[in-house]
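User: Predict the complex.
Assistant: Input components as received:
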Amino acid sequence: MIVKLLSEVTRMTAQPEADQLPVAGIQQLLAALQDPVRLEMVRRLVDAGGEAQCKLLYDGVGKSTAAHHFKILREAGITERLTVDGTVHQRLRAADVDDVAPGLLDAVVGAAQRATD
Amino acid sequence: MIVKLLSEVTRMTAQPEADQLPVAGIQQLLAALQDPVRLEMVRRLVDAGGEAQCKLLYDGVGKSTAAHHFKILREAGITERLTVDGTVHQRLRAADVDDVAPGLLDAVVGAAQRATD
DNA sequence: CGCCTGGTTCGATGATCGTCAAACTTCTTT
DNA sequence: AAAGAAGTTTGACGATCATCGAACCAGGCG
């Protein structure tokens, strides 16, 4: 539900961004969300309203490892990199993912959120 | 939607089965569904109405590999092994999974189904 | 300018995972 | 009883993956 609302908001405010790579298939989406570190990143992104500074999205791993995970999330089409105020941010492409796998982000993040409470 | 209805049916007809291992966390569920062979197994299980003979659930891999994947699905709590007419069957624990991760199976299988059409 | 913060890229390493063949069990069938 | 079909287990091999440190590339600020 949270993600669904997020999808609407981001659909409204999304910059064109023109040519960004398409969201990957369900296979690759699941592979991307399967990792604990990456799932936490996505969970925090939802918590933050769909967009956040990289630094705030991880804990317990080095920044080179974090950059590696960001890349995988981006290549799966789950997030995109954008620059706000000169600092790099990650944005959750909730609406795009929902087009390929309706309800997936909601189910996954919801379960993760409940497991974190 | 298909899975949701399936959950209801299986909830009705499920044998007690008493002490079966609990469904794993979202992490392990995603890890189990991430593999192409296993996702296809689950997809075919849904197609078959929630229960099928092992043999009908895979193609292109040896039966030892298939047995390995069945084990992983079982350990994640996604399926259970039951014997019908003397032959081993795999049953999708749709309702149990839906308790831990509501909507997950629907989203994943739905996307997989659409990608297979 | 020089320094620090925030991210990325590039090997390298260690662990995990998917795959197979072979041996074994059980049930069915002839 | 013998033969076959269906699944599982084990051990081994190759590939993929997560992690790290180090070097590198921006901006922002002293």
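The CA atoms of residues 25 and 89 of chain A lie 24 Å apart.
Let me know if you want any component modeled separately.
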